[in-house]
Amino acid sequence: MEKQILHSCSELIDYINQVGFLPLLHMGVEGWSAEEMVDEDCQYTQLPDGGWEWPLWSWKSAILQESGCAYGKFFDGKVAFISREWWPHFCNYRRSVYPRLEEGSIADSILATLKSEGSLITRELRAACGFTGPKMRSRFDAYLTRLEMGSYLVIEDFIYPHDRHGREYGWGWALLSTPESLFGREACHPHCTPQESHERMLDQFRKILPNESESVYNALLK
What is the reported pTM? Predict the structure, then answer.
């Protein structure tokens, strides 16, 4: 597709809905990320006082709330947006690649805890699942990544701490949820086979990334 320069959160939302699949940051496929689509004023800027500004980063919450798209580590363990139109097919296919979790497994227990407790920020879910010991954070994060790659888990929003003046600061804490809870069960189960969903997504990738090879499309969707 023709490269566009985006100047606002609303323009980025429209673009996500147009292409269907868009990583937040560059991940190796030239031109295929929100980072590469927005103009210079939206990029990360280091401030003289040691702080920073990054409009693109700050838009994430608004994008999720206003567009209703899915967000999580969906491609090679990297975060991306998937429009509501394409989420059912992505979920349908990915769950065939990452089969139903074995009952009683750690990943199944994490998901069961989230279903029981409702939406939780990462550190709350980690504590609720008992991953509180030394070096447990990276191990827990690996389970979350696999759950997101399998479309069993999504990032619903971002929660920010506030300073004494009531201003948000920091990188934000991911608020985790299940897609069934966030979008409804029907949005995760289209009336077609996983292979049909895969073929439809391949057709879309051929349109949005026409210069890439079939092996690239298949690698992204695996």
Answer: 0.93
Most distant pair of Cα atoms in the chain: their distance: 54
By C-alpha distance, which of 219, 201, 164, 175 is closest to 61?
A: 175
Provide the H-helix boundaries in the chain. 9-19, 34-37, 55-58, 60-67, 87-97, 106-117, 122-128, 136-149, 179-183, 194-208, 214-221
| pLDDT tens figures, 188-209 | 999 999 999 999 999 999 999 9
User: Can you tell me the distance from the alpha carbon of 73 to that of 57, in angstroms, rounded to the nearest whole number?
Assistant: 15
- Rounded CA-CA distance 110/146 in Å is 11
CA dist 187 and 124 (Å) reads 27
**Helix, coil or strand: residue 158:** strand
- pLDDT digits 0-9 by tens, 151-179: 999 999 999 888 888 887 778 899 999 99
Instruction: Give residue limits of the domains in the chain.
Output: 9-212
Sign of CA dihedral 79, 85, 91, 92: negative
Say whether 169 sits in a helix, a strand or coil. coil
